[in-house]
Write a structure and sequence with these properties.
57 residues, mainly beta, 3-stranded antiparallel beta sheet, 0% helix, Fimbrial adhesin, Adhesion_dom_sf, Adhesion_dom_fimbrial_sf
Amino acid sequence: MQLLYHRQPVVLNHEMTLGSASAGRFTLPLTARYYQTRSRITAGQVSAVATYTLHYD
């Protein structure tokens, strides 16, 4: 799986500045997709977990 922010791959284990919530609400435009890492693939099951830490001031 690959995590995307505004359709661009997220670099894992790096800080990202996402913006500010002026009205008290903020939507994170994050999506995930299947990502091929080998030239040859076979059918099978997949499961993934994404954990993120959010800091705000």
